[in-house]
Design a protein that fits this description.
The complex is a heterodimer. Chain A is mostly helical. In chain A, 74% of the residues lie in helices and 0% in strands. Chain A starts with 8 loop residues before the first helix and ends in a 15-residue tail after the last helix. Chain B is an alpha/beta fold. Chain B has helices at 43-51, 73-79, 96-107, 122-134, 150-163, 180-191, 206-212, 230-235, 237-245; strands at 3-14, 17-23, 26-28, 32-36, 58-63, 66-67, 81-83, 168-172, 198-202, 215-220, 223-228. In chain B, the strands form two sheets. In chain B, strands 7-8-9-4-10-11 form a six-stranded mixed β-sheet, with helices on both faces. In chain B, helix 3 (96-107) crosses helix 4 and helix 3 packs parallel to helix 5 (150-163). Classes of the chains: A mainly alpha, B alpha/beta.
């Protein structure tokens, strides 16, 4: 083992910078995203929506996945960004959409900064309630001042000029998609950079152990204020892109459902690695589309089903198992009512036998990791591999 | 020697319980000062007061003669006071490399840098390597802290405090829970600290205390009981009485 004085410099540097490099998988992800512009021209409207959800989930991941701040009211900033962009468009304050977008993001981040001091207090439950409250308050303010916001009818008459004065938003959403995807990509690159900086590392430290963080000289509260402000700005950008591409803003954009949905998306995709929000948005929106084709009125049943499965058996196994069960009900053409009774019963049974199953899977996982390591050492790659994730039972 | 860290009439009450009672300590520059006392004497409370994790009910704390009683914990670290914890307080999801890189980045004022990547500064990586070698963490430096053996975690706990380059280091039972055969490793690193670093050590093990300390303060029921050179303290009949009274466990 490398316990002796070795030239560790290269090893330490490469360990720290390794995750900053773009992996082939990441490059492939973005190339596919880029290719989708030409591959699926008929799907640009739904792809735009996915991009917007992805931006919104990315924003939540910054606070939840990295700093450990849970929010049930993140739509507060989404809605604020949407109305800012809508009003800027309606009254023509800033005719160029990119500048209007930046302005909307700034407005949302100012609101994030102002409310961050409320959110810093207390435990997860306190934060959940405070963020929830902030979203309700902002939503009702928008409702009350209906002469400005349009109230329950939504903000009508939003006019968005051409991007950079050249590219007009069209009915088929082609410009909208390229616009949304570009904004998402830029936001992602910035977020990726931030989470790998010393600032990003300090957020992870704070999430893990705030007491020790302050004992190594980290100004814990200010770091949290900073990331909350940024995250609010990100949510605002997502809302603004929605308002701009739809040329409309409505009170629903502040809604609790939206806050809950984005949390759901992030949980489905996974927190703390940035792609979770993107993948979650893709899965969630496509599943929504597909499942509401199956049973338009009850599709959320399946979302609930998947969610419980993921919590019971982990994201990957739970997700696969849920997909298999849903697939089986489709394959055997089980009618909606029967499939609900059957799958709800399955959930209850699985809840009872969860413990032994999870233990068995964890054991197998461990054996697999050990076997993999042995193979790797044999291939003389040992020592450079990262430790496997300790399986959480 | 000039006094680096001083407390004047420090009181801490938790409701009706008096955890610190008129504690007036002065620690000289470069001292190896031990704070001992029976369980529940308030030793950790004193460390928490010195580092700002608790606010005193009354009294003052001075660093180099300047009042720091109201200074926030993280600012005290910048002023040169660092500590270790009796029970490991580490970052479970970070590796030793990242843990040390974090503390070093903070000390060099890079902590709010959100643009550069963590390992891009050689000033940071050089120090990480130095600490990893000094604390023999090389073979586990890429592992998550949560899965490290206890002895390694204990070393990291101390290395993390050293990474803050303190002028005053407060060690709260550094060898606690470490098996006998691994203790020497921890003690060796503590003994190898530069002479100008002032150390306040809390410890139960009498062998460690008498081999390490050049001054001892005895705390009983939150109050300073006896203070002096190790020999004098060892001979003091009152100290013997306190320790014998509660079954001397050395």
């Amino acid at each position: 083992m490398s316990d002796q004085t070795l030239p560790l410099t290269g090893e330490v540097t490469s360990f720290l910078t390794r995750r900053a490099r773009w992996s082939p998988l990441e490059v492939a992800f973005w190339l596919i995203a880029l290719a989708s512009i030409w591959l699926f021209p008929a799907k640009h409207l739904i792809l735009t929506e996915i991009c917007i959800w992805a931006m919104f989930a990315l924003s939540l991941d910054l606070i939840l996945g990295y700093a450990g701040i849970i929010s049930l009211g993140h739509a507060a900033f989404f809605g604020l960004g949407a109305y800012s962009a809508g009003l800027i468009g309606k009254y023509g304050f800033i005719p160029e959409p990119v500048l209007a977008l930046v302005a909307s993001g700034l407005i949302a981040s100012v609101a994030g900064f102002a409310t961050s001091f409320l959110v810093l207090r207390g435990s997860d439950l306190t934060r959940l309630m405070v963020t929830f409250g902030v979203a309700l308050v902002l939503g009702e303010i928008a409702n009350k001042f209906s002469d400005i916001t349009g109230g329950a009818d939504g903000l009508q008459g939003v006019e968005i000029g051409p991007v950079f004065g050249t590219f007009r938003f069209d009915l088929f959403g082609h410009t909208g998609y390229v616009y949304a995807l570009s904004v998402l990509f830029l936001m992602f690159v910035l977020a990726r950079r931030i989470v790998r900086s010393p600032f990003g590392l300090s957020l992870q430290a704070i999430r893990g152990n705030p007491l020790r963080s302050s004992a190594v000289g980290i100004a814990v509260n200010w770091r949290l204020v900073a990331i909350y402000t940024l995250s609010a700005g990100y949510a605002g950008l997502a809302g603004a892109v929605l308002a701009q591409t739809q040329q409309f803003a409505s009170l629903e954009m502040f809604s609790v459902e939206r806050s809950a949905d984005v949390l759901l998306i992030l949980i489905i995709g996974g927190t703390g690695y940035l792609y979770g929000g993107l993948i979650g948005a893709l899965i969630y929106r496509l599943a929504q589309d597909y499942l509401s084709d199956l049973s338009a009125r009850y599709w959320q049943y399946w979302i609930g089903f998947v969610l419980i499965m993921m919590v019971l058996f982990g994201r990957v196994y739970g997700g696969i198992l849920a997909a298999l069960i849903i697939g089986a009900t489709i394959w055997f053409k089980v009618d909606t009512g029967t499939s609900f009774v059957l799958t709800a019963g399955t959930l209850l049974v699985l809840g009872l036998v969860r413990e032994p199953i999870v233990k068995w899977v964890a054991l197998r996982e461990q054996q697999a990791v050990v076997a993999m390591r042995r193979i790797r050492t044999r291939m003389k790659l040992g020592g450079h591999t990262e430790s496997g994730h300790a399986g959480r039972a | 020697m000039p006094v680096v860290l001083e407390t004047r009439g420090l009181d801490k009450h938790f409701g009706g319980i008096v955890a610190a009672n008129q504690v007036s300590l002065s620690i000289e520059k470069g001292a190896r000062h031990a704070l001992i006392g029976p369980n529940g004497a308030g030793k950790t409370t004193v460390v928490n007061l010195l580092t700002g994790m608790l606010k005193p009910t009354a009294g003052q704390i001075l660093l180099d003669g300047k009042d720091i009683t109201r200074v926030e914990p993280h600012e005290r670290v910048r002023l040169g006071i660092a500590r270790t914890f009796q029970i490991n307080q580490l970052f479970a999801d970070l590796t030793p490399i990242e843990t040390l890189g974090l503390a070093i980045s903070e000390r060099l004022g890079l902590g709010s840098d959100w643009w550069r990547i963590v390992g891009s500064k050689t000033s940071v990586t050089d120090e990480i390597i130095e600490l990893i070698e000094r604390f023999r963490l090389g073979d586990v430096m890429r592992e998550r802290t949560a899965i490290l053996p206890y002895g390694k975690q204990r070393l990291l706990e101390i290395a993390l405090a050293i990474a803050c380059k303190p002028r005053v280091l407060l060690l709260d039972e550094p060898a606690a829970g470490v098996p006998e055969d691994e203790r020497h490793e921890i003690l060796a690193t503590v003994e190898a600290l530069p002479k100008d670093v002032t150390v306040l050590l809390i410890e139960h093990d009498m062998d460690i205390i008498f081999s390490f300390a050049d001054r001892i303060s005895v705390l009983v029921n939150g109050a300073l009981f006896v203070e002096g050179e190790p020999d004098a303290v060892a001979r003091d009949p009152r100290v013997k009485a306190v320790y014998l009274g509660e079954a001397f466990d050395a």
